[in-house]
Amino acid sequence: MNLKQELQQLNDKLDKFRRKLAAAELRGDAAIIAQFKREIAAVTKQIASVKGQHTRVLSKQGTEVKALAFHRALTKAEQADMGKLKKSVKGLIVVHPMTALGREMGVTVVTGYAPSAF
Predict the structure, then answer these.
(1) Which of 52, 67, 82 corresponds to the end of one domain?
(2) 53 vs 9, 10, 41, 94, CA distance in Å?
(3) What span, in angstroms and rounded, lies between the C-alpha atoms of 36 and 88?
(4) Neighbouring C-alpha atoms within 13 Å toward the C-beta of 117
(5) DSSP string for residues in 43-63
(6) Which domain does 74 fall in, by range?
(7) Could you tell me the CATH number of the domain that includes residue 85?
(8) 63-81 pLDDT tens trace
(9) β-strand 70-73 against 93-95: which pairing, if any?
């Protein structure tokens, strides 16, 4: 299971526990309230762990991409015909500023990274 799916499942679980906690508080069931508070704390800790792992993966991927020898901003024409560009440049990696990798790398425009000039 990838990190995004795991994070989504944990957030769903957290939401479910919070709803059940609210219902238990309305009933005034002390044992159930304590149980759900423990479970919410455990799931919150797991979520923090998965987010940290996701950040480390993105950071590692970003450093690998930045290590490529050549990079430059892509023109609108190149962005429009991305298939042609990727076929003509071996090993091209395109980083968009709105993706998680782009935000991690601090990219402000669509940028292409490749082992050689293009």
Answers:
(1) 67
(2) 16, 14, 19, 23
(3) 56
(4) 0
(5) HHHHHHHHHHHHHHHHHHHHH
(6) 68-118
(7) 3.30.1370.150
(8) 999 999 899 999 999 999 9
(9) unpaired
